Target: Bifunctional protein FolD
Amino acid sequence: MSATLIDGKAFAAGLRTRIATEVAAMKAQGITPGLAVVLVGEDPASQVYVRSKGKQTLEVGMNSYEHKLPAETPEADLLALIERLNADPAVNGILVQLPLPAHMDEEAVINAILPEKDVDGFTVLNVGRLATGQKAMVPCTPLGCLMMLREHLGSLSGKNAVVIGRSNIVGKPMAQLLLRDSATVTIAHSRTQDLPGLCRTADILVAAVGRANFVKGDWVKPGATVIDVGINRTDDGLVGDVDFAEAEQVAGAITPVPGGVGPMTIACLLANTLTATARANGLPDPEGLTP
Ligand SMILES: NC(=O)C1=CN([C@@H]2O[C@H](COP(=O)(O)OP(=O)(O)OC[C@H]3O[C@@H](n4cnc5c(N)ncnc54)[C@H](OP(=O)(O)O)[C@@H]3O)[C@@H](O)[C@H]2O)C=CC1
Ligand SMILES: Nc1nc(=O)c2c([nH]1)NC[C@@H]1CN(c3ccc(C(=O)N[C@@H](CCC(=O)O)C(=O)O)cc3)C=[N+]21
Ligand SMILES: [Mg+2]
Model:
């Protein structure tokens, strides 16, 4: 047996085409969406993401504003930049690349972003809105995972979902979105007992752990849908948190790494920027880009 491959790269390309169409329509009304990305320091992986975000932002017809600050920038200077971006009408979305250097208070920096421009959905206001079922900006990685799950499964109602990982940027918002779609959700983490046994109950298994090839084939329920969020650089190249070779023998469907969740994350960032621009201009939310 061999699983259906969920092609995030192709899905993301289709999403970007739809976004480009919407951007063109906005531009005809004199509105050009703008995304500001702030990178502090020189982490090579972060530089790669920021570069591909900037490139894809321009490709869909949006304006891209990149701000690169040295690692030793005082926090006050970063907060001052965020204030300027908050006040700039050409900027509809603001993303501050994480992680930040150790001398900065990540929570304070994130919460300085105007919630309406918080295209990562990381501010407490957007987290609270998502948790209470109000109209929010939803974190890009979980949103991309949700889109792929809906596309593959249709309804998620009543399905058993296990999310491995409880971070604020992936695990927790992923669980919220699955719950909103009426899945029965369990969040697992480093203290979870009998993780393999728990995973075997999952119709939907989302791995956001940060450990290469962590989830083994015999943890996967036959026919399950497996979403691999992990990005791990190893001597064998980029690999996910799921042992792909094993899991694809058992799963019904699975996302590859690379070419799965990663490209969807960037496409959803553009989707959120479009949504933020629509809301800032009193237009309805673009169809199919919000949960
Ligand atoms: N494709 C994409 O677009 C993105 C990919 N990523 C990738 O996703 C992965 C997760 O990212 P992130 O959520 O930020 O990571 P974090 O390090 O913030 O969180 C990892 C989570 O995994 C849990 N965990 C660690 N070890 C184990 C274990 N042995 N058993 C069970 N749970 C464990 C931790 O548990 P505890 O809380 O108990 O410590 C924690 O909740 C990384 O590989 C990251 O690179 C992240 C963002 C976007
Ligand atoms: N404020 C903030 N928002 C984020 O969304 C955010 C962040 N900080 N910090 C880092 C993580 C990680 N992340 C990825 C985005 C795209 C790929 C991606 O496109 N991956 C490609 C491979 C890219 C490669 O080769 O390195 C793929 O999986 O196919 C991966 C990871 C967003 N993050
Ligand atoms: Mg983290």
Notes: The chain has two domains: 30-116, 140-262. The pocket of 5,10-Methenyltetrahydrofolate (ligand 2) is lined by residues 48-49, 95-98, 120, 140-141, 231, 238, 257-259, 262-263, 265-266 (CB under 6 Å). The two ends are 33 Å apart (CA to CA). The mean pLDDT is 97.
